[in-house]
Amino acid sequence: MSSLSAEQKSIEEFMGSKKNFFLIPNYQRPYSWEDEECFTLWNDLLAFIFQDNDYRNFNDKDEYFLGALVIFKNSDDLLEVIDGQQRLITLTLLLRAFYKTYGDNMKDEDSHDRKRDIEKCLWKCPEPGERLDMRELKIFSKVATENESQEFANIMMTGEADNSSSSRYAANYRLFQRAIKDFVDKYPAYFQYMTHRILTNCSVLPIEAINQNTALRIFSTLNDRGKPLSDSDIFKAKLFNSYSKHDQRDLFIADWRDFENTCSKIFVFGKNTPIDDIFMRYMYYVRAEAGIRDSSLESLRDFYSRDDNKSSLLNRDYKKTFDDLNILADFWKDITIQETKRFSGRVLKQLFILHYMPNNMWTFLVSVYFMANKNESGLLSEKSFYEFLTKITGFILASRFVRPGNTAAFFNAMVSITEGRGADFTGYEFDINELADRISRFDFANSSKITRSMVTWQAFQDKQQELLPLEAKYDIEHILPRRRESELTHKANLESIGNKSLLEKEINIRASDYRFRDKANYYLGNTGKSPTKIHELTVLAESKSDFTEQDIENRKQDIINNFINFIMKNNLAK
Fold first, then answer.
1. Distances in Å between the alpha carbon of 363 and those of 207, 343, 420?
2. Among 331, 338, 341, 394, which residue's Cα sits nearest to residue 366?
3. Residues 330-347: what's their mean pLDDT?
4. What percent of the chain has pLDDT over 70?
5. Distance of CA 371 to the CA centre of its chain
6. pLDDT digits (tens, 9 = 90+) for 533-567
7. Are 20 and 79 in contact, with CB atoms under 8 Å apart?
8. CA triple 325-326-328, angle to 5 deg
9. How far is the C-alpha of 393 from the C-alpha of 351, rounded, in Å?
10. What is the pTM of this model?
């Protein structure tokens, strides 16, 4: 027998076959189609079936292709859906909504025939003389929570969705009910044509593999309609396969759900999902531990798909890999929630600064450091970790001014961390005169990422600055407002770092372009609203009646001097 077979089938042939019962396995992602995907499907079907709103403009030989599904028959004789569950469940909800409409509104013989056609797609066909049992569904899902799984079953059995439910099952079913009602109200005579044409002229391409391994091999090549598979979807399937080989399916399913829950609490940096981010950060650690200094990176999917040596992470080393990923995710979760039981106040402040770095390289450095230096309890030395954080903060910021885009130093540092030498930037130290000159001449426009980085760093140089919540929103404040630019001798001072500060977004909006003495009232909370938590602004508001061009120049020089001292203190100067 060949390893897979594929033959395009109509919805009626595929879903209505007496022998086809479907299982959405535990390792799949939850049902997640939103309104947009459902509306797109509905509108596409209307455009296909009723061109120019006329049922006669249709060729019975035309087909509407709904895409491929990857399946295999498991030991329980169920078709396990590896790829395509989003479409399959959505079609099931759509057909159930049609069936409900027939039951409520259509009584003629043709309606009876259409109902029977839909019944074959949704429930086990009764034997002659038996009644249809709506509890005997043709599709089962082990992905959803117990409540959501029961809700899907209830919709299938009753044809009703709880209006108070916000699950995607209920929301999409209600959406289809409304769409069908609108169509029936507008084109009551056409309804029979629509259901018939969906069942007979809409098709899918079921790709049936001989076993799960074969199905998983093609899993990574196909996308759900409107929902591309993320890297983590692929990794989840590979890990599930590895655990299954050792009869540990249930263990993996429970652990993966805990892993997803942990990752959901982690901020996303860049375009990846939180789970993809954890896999990415772990990849940097594995590369560094292997002594790889090359700054040219392969894709995340390619890296975890390799089977050679150290990189057989999802196969031979699957248990260690998943344990490490969980430990790393828990570490980042505690950073995100600013867990004081795990981190000291000064460490959390330094991590807050790093969250506003101009790129996410710091997350890789910190991940490598944690994995290389954690003790058996998953903890780090407070003193060593704090010193490491301050050092990489200085290096990342200084690099942005002197040699932006040069990543070789970071990859060398990651390897040195795994070798027990800490973040070694030997050979990449900074000429402090050049650095000071670059900062002095830099255009600190609000749109520049380094501006936010520097004002955040500056805020925490005040020893009385309290830790700020990561979830709050902050803007960049012009202490001397933009509308006073005409009063400046040197216009560039308006955008000088000496005139910029971090400030809570809501206070920044209220303070707007008022003069300093008016801004000071907002900083101090004298207007009946909450005061700023930026201590430096509080001090300025209490000690000054105005903020002048000379103040900008003095503050700018103080910031540059403080930063140069910071670089020297962290042994980053030549």
1. 40, 16, 19
2. 331
3. 97
4. 91
5. 23
6. 999 999 999 999 999 999 999 999 999 999 999 99
7. yes
8. 65
9. 9
10. 0.71
The CA-to-CA distance between both ends of the chain, in Å, stands at 69
What does the CA dihedral 340, 343, 347, 348 come to, rounded to 10 degrees?
Answer: -40
pLDDT at 513: 79
- Please give the distance of CA 173 from its chain centroid, rounded to a whole number: 26
- Report residue 553 as tokens: 């120049």
Give residue 192's pLDDT band: very low, low, confident or very high (50, 70, 90): confident
Residue 476 structure tokens:
């960049």
208, 71 contact by CB (below 8 A): yes
Alpha helices (runs of H) in 163-273, residue ranges in sequence order: 168-186, 191-201, 212-219, 231-245, 249-263
| Token digits of residue 207 | 């790709």
Mean pLDDT, residues 292-321 taken together: 77
Q: Which two tokens stand for residue 425?
A: 């930037």
User: Rounded CA gap, 103 and 157, in Å?
Assistant: 13
DSSP structural state of residue 430:
B
Q: Which two tokens stand for residue 18?
A: 């007496």
In sign, the C-alpha dihedral spanning 117, 123, 127, 129 is negative
Decide: 123 and 134 in contact? Cβ < 8 Å: yes
For residue 189, the 8-state DSSP code is G
Helix, strand, coil shares, percent, the chain, to 5: 55, 10, 35
Please state, in angstroms and rounded to a whole number, the distance separating the CA atoms of residues 200 and 572. Answer: 71
**Chain segment 110-149, per-residue pLDDT in tens:** 566 788 899 999 999 888 878 889 999 999 887 755 567 7
Enumerate residues 6+ apart whose C-beta is below 8 A from 50.
57, 58, 187, 190, 193, 194
Q: Alpha-carbon distance 397 to 385, whole Å? A: 18
SS (H, E, C) 48-94: HHCHHHCCCCCCCCCCEEEEEEEEEECCCCCEEEEECHHHHHHHHHH
DSSP 530: P
CA 30 to chain centre: 14
Largest interatomic CA distance in the chain: 96
| Domain extents in the chain | 4-219, 231-428, 449-547
Please check whether residue 310 is in contact with residue 286, taking contact to mean a CB–CB distance below 8 angstroms: yes
